């Protein structure tokens, strides 16, 4: 599951991503007691292999070149370009300076709620920072085949986000794949409206402090995104969602 690089003298060299994978494997084995088959399934979902770019991609009208820059570094660039200090970012987002600094340096510790608050304080969105790259508008309609989706940079174990509509300017359309028990870690709100349809598993969501709603396969929910909302993937296996926001506000 892990293939390290080697120096000229044959010494193994591990990247930060590979070390994170090692720690995850140890936790799954020792703490959760999973066997190797189950561990491989979890690792495959949490650490997807990067897509292999074709040398001809740049010549394909409407093709998208993903940016592999870690999400924490992208957030730091957004903060710096906006002329904000760490303290100003903390004051604007309501998040601790230590969290912002750690996330920028290590790409760890973030949640859906914290990223949304941080992006909003920078005047941008998580989607915009996650999918930065070159887009062509030379095509009339974009087709995204199954298995060819752009995978957003991972910021939290157990959450995988696939971009389904890269060309649109005012619509976030994504497939979220959530491991059991993954949650938003608090309520968050933002401008716009959103729609969620359950493709697999079960989602429990609370909107505007009302009673929690339990959604099963085939169920949908829509609401004003300005109302605080929080959620948890409650299925025994993975939960898959079609998640749409407008305007781009996640």
UniProtKB/TrEMBL annotation:
The keyword DNA-binding applies. PROSITE patterns: HTH_CROC1, HTH_MERR_2. It comes from Achromobacter veterisilvae. Residues 1-45 form the HTH merR-type domain. GO terms for molecular function: DNA binding; DNA-binding transcription factor activity. The gene is puuR_3. Pfam families: Cupin_2, HTH_31, MerR_1. InterPro entries: Cro/C1-type_HTH, Cupin_2, DNA-bd_dom_put_sf, Lambda_DNA-bd_dom_sf, MerR-type_HTH_dom, RmlC-like_jellyroll, RmlC_Cupin_sf, TransReg_Diox_bact_type. This is HTH-type transcriptional regulator PuuR. GO terms for cellular component: cytosol. Residues 75-129 form the HTH cro/C1-type domain. Keywords: DNA-binding. PANTHER family: HTH-TYPE TRANSCRIPTIONAL REGULATOR, METHYLPHOSPHONATE SYNTHASE. The keyword DNA-binding applies. Signal peptide: none annotated.
